[in-house]
Task: structure prediction
Amino acid sequence: MTTKRKAVTARGGRKLTPKQKRFVEEYLIDLNATQAAIRAGYSQRTAGQIGEQNLKKLEIKQAIQAAQENRSERTEITQDMVLQELAKIGFSDIRKIVRWGETMLRMETDKDGNDVVVPYHGLALIDSAEIDDATAAAISEVAEGRNGLTVKLHDKKGALVDIGRHLGMFKDRVEHSGPDGGPIPMMPTTIELVAPNVESKD
Result:
């Protein structure tokens, strides 16, 4: 049984103009009113103002809310689920991923057959078996290069901003956007774990 896609209309039955419908559809993509207005065909020069005005119109607000509820039903993804995933990133603790400080490394044996142990100040990645699921969700990439491991984390600040928006903490602006109305640049945290370059003693 196929489910028909509902038309983008306000709950009160008031129909939107074709351009307003397009705005709602585009806004649902990235929740950026300025970019949604541009993609919907409004003037780029006034897109920021138009986008802000559209979000204040009751019929458009109702259409956006209805579309979001329909999408949530289709995907079975709830706001609570989204917040929980954002919380894993926003409240992640780097100490659950890496260790740092002085440690002793055993290098190659010397000419007399004795082990050469030297102090090393650096980072050490915690074994993946010791990393809990919530912390693992905050990691976006682990790569191994010539100099060692590189670990990238999802944008912690961005996740906290999104959580705040979901909880209604930021009411001073209708939307959060980057330069020229674009999306906020993501700023992932990068941790480089470089192998120590310590030569053995003679």
